[in-house]
Structures are given as C-alpha cells and as structure tokens.
Amino acid sequence: MAEDGQIINCETFASWNEQFHTVVVNFTASWCEPSRYMIPILVELAKKLPDVIFFKVDVDVLKTVTQDFDVEVWPTFILLKQGCIVDRVVGTRKDELQQKITLHMPKV
To answer: What is the enclosing helix (H) or strand (E) of 32?
Structure first.
C-alpha cells in the first residue's frame, strides 16, 4: 500500500493486482451475540486470506458509516472491490461469506 504522497510503480501483473484489494467490512455491535459468534470465523478467514483486507465497524460508534451502507441488521458483511460494493452477506452465514469472498478475490 502507498503512503501519503507516494506513487506506486506497477511493473508486474502481481503488483498491479495488489492495488485492487477485496475488502470485507464487518458491521457489528459489541452487545450482539451473532456478531460475537462471527469474530473467530473472521480471524480465521483473515489468516487464510492475506490478500483480503478486513475491517470491523462498530454500528454504535460509526452510525453515519452504518447508515451510508444501508446496514440495518448485524452482523452485515459488505464486500468492496475498487471501492465499489460487489456483494453483501447478512447474518451468521459463514459458508456463504467465505464463498463470496473467494469469488471476488483478485485472480493472479
């Protein structure tokens, strides 16, 4: 990833693909049991999928972001690619989440 003011030089296909990360945003609440259930699953996915960036957004802290993404149920997982929403998984559907992440990962 580039630091502020840094220009990234892409000289290989792999370095090109590195710039188009798949991002998973986990909208969660600390008091929500289904959200807590998904934490160890997300930790394992993050270990298995180092090319995917995982974010956790507390819906009680970042209410504006939660509203911007039209999240009304948690956990909700928004998958972004190149800054655009490409998919969404609502609830504790761990198999569906893994399938959709794999579907949207960069192909090398």
So the answer is: none
Per-residue pLDDT tens for 21-45?
Answer: 788 999 999 999 999 999 999 999 9
CA neighbor of 73 nearest in space, from 23, 100, 34: 34
CA dihedral 57, 53, 71, 86 (to 10 degrees): 170
Residue that has been written with the tokens 């090109």 in this structure: 16
The pLDDT tens digits of the residues spanning 66-96 come to 999 999 999 999 999 888 899 999 999 999 9
Peptide bond into 75 cis (omega under 30): yes
The Cα 37–Cα 40 span in angstroms is 7
Give the three-class secondary structure for 40.
helix
